[in-house]
Design goal:
By secondary structure, the chain is an alpha+beta fold. The protein contains 5 helices and 8 strands, in the order E-H-H-E-E-E-H-E-H-E-E-H-E. Strands 1-2-3-4-5-7-6-8 form an 8-stranded mixed beta sheet, with helices on both faces. A hairpin with a 2-residue loop joins strand 2 and strand 3. The radius of gyration is 16 Å and the shape is globular. The termini are far apart.
């Protein structure tokens, strides 16, 4: 099976199905405005992808890159294509696309009180099974806190903040932060 990545912009033929998947795969408080994602991907450093398996559309991915750091901001597989190994194949393809970079993502915190607790555990295990590991950091975007997983090395809070400032701009980037549980407070 051949996985391919096709760039997306606001005029892409895939935008209608991307919008539908995006709105159903991610909770309201975890979604950036889709138009913002599309417009930001017109600049260098942000890639908005349609995912295809043997020429058939199955999902979306969005990555932000700065220097040797790639943040997989979104990854989703359409509901009818889930359970076929396409998510794993897409993740491997993306890791190869950004090979040589520290590659990381933000994952809903494991919270036993969350109504989707078992889903969160499954999602975390999916990333572990695909070679990512917990990095011991927490990202806060808006009002939501996430655990950080990745491969290729740790991400320092100041790197994440700089990346997001360059991506979002000075004003919007004030809504994001990162804590490194491995670094005592005040040392960076």
């Amino acid at each position: 099976m051949k996985i391919s990545l096709k760039r997306v912009n606001i005029f892409s033929e895939d935008m209608k199905r991307i919008k539908q998947l995006y709105n159903t795969a991610f909770p309201d408080d975890e979604r950036a405005p889709l138009i913002l994602l599309a417009l930001r991907s017109e600049k260098s450093g942000a890639d908005f992808w349609s995912l295809y398996a043997d020429g058939e559309w199955f999902g979306l991915a969005y990555a932000i890159t700065e220097d040797d750091l790639t943040y997989l901001f979104y990854l989703a597989v359409s509901e009818e294509k889930r359970g076929q190994g396409l998510g794993s194949k897409a993740l491997q393809t993306l890791k190869m696309k950004y090979y040589g970079n520290r590659f990381f993502l933000a994952l809903e915190k494991i919270d036993e009180n969350a109504e989707n607790y078992s889903e969160r555990l499954k999602r975390r295990q999916f990333y572990i099974n695909n070679g990512l590991e917990p990095l011991g950091s927490t990202i806060k975007e808006g009002k939501v806190r996430y655990d950080v997983m990745g491969v290729g090395g740790n991400v320092r809070p100041e790197e994440y903040v700089r990346m997001m400032r360059n991506y979002l701009g000075k004003r919007l980037s004030k809504m994001v932060s990162m804590d490194d549980d491995n670094v005592p407070r005040g040392t960076f």
